[in-house]
Amino acid sequence: MSALIRVSVVSIVAFSGMYAFPSGVFAEIPEKTVASLCAADENVIFACMTRQEKNASLCASKNLSANEGYLVYRFGRIGQKPELVYPNAPVSPYKIFTYMAHSNKYWRGVEVDFNISAHTYTLYNNYYDNEIHNDMPNISESGVIVRKHGKMIMQAECVEANAHLDKIGEFIKHDSE
User: What is the pLDDT of residues 4-27, one digit of tens each?
Assistant: First the structure.
């Protein structure tokens, strides 16, 4: 079993509201259009449609930077009032969200965590590069895990996802801090 390696976030260049990922194995993550619970004036960082037809969305203000802006997590059905909104009011994402990245030669995983009382929510995106098997497509999997006092109580895998958790790594606290 290969060990997970914690890595520093590669700087991501922002321009015109779009992000340029560094070249390399993980630069060609397929873009998907998935409905989200983000407002029209927010950027979609993570949109996940679950088997239960509920949506988990992580949304960023257009002005998100190291010094300003916000992130907000929303969960519920598209077209209805969200069941969960966190935080309730804009606050610096550095104070409440944690970022972690793991990787090896063929795999990269990114997580964003936040806590609501005894519950820890983890949004994740794992990307597998099938360099070994050139005839197989690259695979990306995303989802949400909820833990209570460290014990997993729920995992919802995305049946459709638009996950760009890498976009916010430089704006939120890393788990090693």
Answer: 222 222 222 222 223 333 333 333
